[in-house]
Design a protein that fits this description.
alpha+beta, 4-stranded antiparallel beta sheet, 3-stranded antiparallel beta sheet, 2 helices
Amino acid sequence: MWYKGVSFTSDQCALVYLVDAAGTRTTTDSFSDLSQDLSLSVYYNESRHGAPYIQEAKTILDESQYWLSDEGIENWIINNVRVSQTPDGLVSGTEQQ
């Protein structure tokens, strides 16, 4: 995904396609080698993870709250964030004061 639109291909296909407001067409776009898992460096960048934070995570979970309203709305408060899910699946979140 980029400013032009969405480019895609497959390992068994020599062509690259671009999908944008004009439709779908072949293009000369190229791809970087994406065969390696890049997700770890993206998701863990500047995050607090690993053994030093297990006790903190347990404490946050122990202090979390859950309740089901009369309207069927599921509610959680985890680490001062309220998350609600309505029976139709709509999820919303708000920071608690």
